[in-house]
Structure prediction request, 353 residues.
Amino acid sequence: MNIKSSIRDYSVEFVETSEFMDSLIRQPQHIFIIDGTVWDLYKSSTFEKIRVNQAVIQPISEDLKNLESVSKLYDHLITLQAKRNITLIVLGGGILQDICGYVASTLYRGVKWIFVPTTLLAQADSCIGGKTSLNYRNYKNLIGTFFPPSGIIIYPEFLLTLSELDYYSGLGEVVKLHIMGGKDKTEEIRSQFPLLKKKDIPSLKRAIAESLLIKKGYIEEDEFDSGRRNMLNYGHCFGHAIETISNFEIPHGQAVVVGMILANLVSRSRGVLSHEINDYIYKELLKQSLLISKKQLEFNPDDLIQAMKKDKKRTGADLALIMMDQKFNFIRVNDLTEQEVQKAISEFRNATP
Prediction:
């Protein structure tokens, strides 16, 4: 799969065996940057040929996605004598992608980097699009750049060692993208869901490839997020706020699932989405994608509203929201009221067993 970009075109390659590591190791002037958890899982197998003195093992958590981590990584790379012709080879999920993509875009005004996503969320969604994002104080993804990797390698076998929570977080974004692909794609992912829950590799390959193709249509039309690409924030207006007020105990993809549920309830209340389609999507897909407990969702609605007011895409006095309509089209509104948020939360809690 090839992705067109005004910065540089790049490719997504699916591989079936770990032999892809041999070509990465042969890259001239390279440094590996690897998620610490992923390193521990694969250092004696897939990563056994990596020289430790040419690798940075990076601890990962949401609270490390900031400028301080970027600064420490600069220091580490300088210590390893990284030059302008360096290639950063990044193996990990979306948080490491954000940190390293930002580093690659700013070190020496831009160095080559290759991304090997190891989570379902990163493989099916965040690996393409070129965005790098850092949190700043209490603001989610406030700082960032556009700087796609020169290549992406997808090895679905990495997903077999994901925790159940991380796996379902990725499923949430897979479901979101298929819904955005329209009615037929929504039914397609519904039919595959039993196999996806079992981590069936052929089903995963199809779902990941289809998710990326759907997203590709949005990002190639609107690379710098000034119009149609903003629709990809379906579920995120609520979702980012839910992540924030949970201190990131609720992972991104799970927060997005809740965000889609709430967005659909607002859309239904406004008469934009029918009860039938809302109920179908909720019962057949969104509810099936939720792994977090009801207790984790007992947040204060006022806290959620305050967090939503910090949304960097908010432009008016009210709140911003991406909603779907009856024909699986997506629209952005800037007049979401606090009362509508309160009502959607109440309806969701009443519907959740």
The chain has two domains: 2-161, 164-351. The CA atoms of residues 218 and 229 lie 5 Å apart.
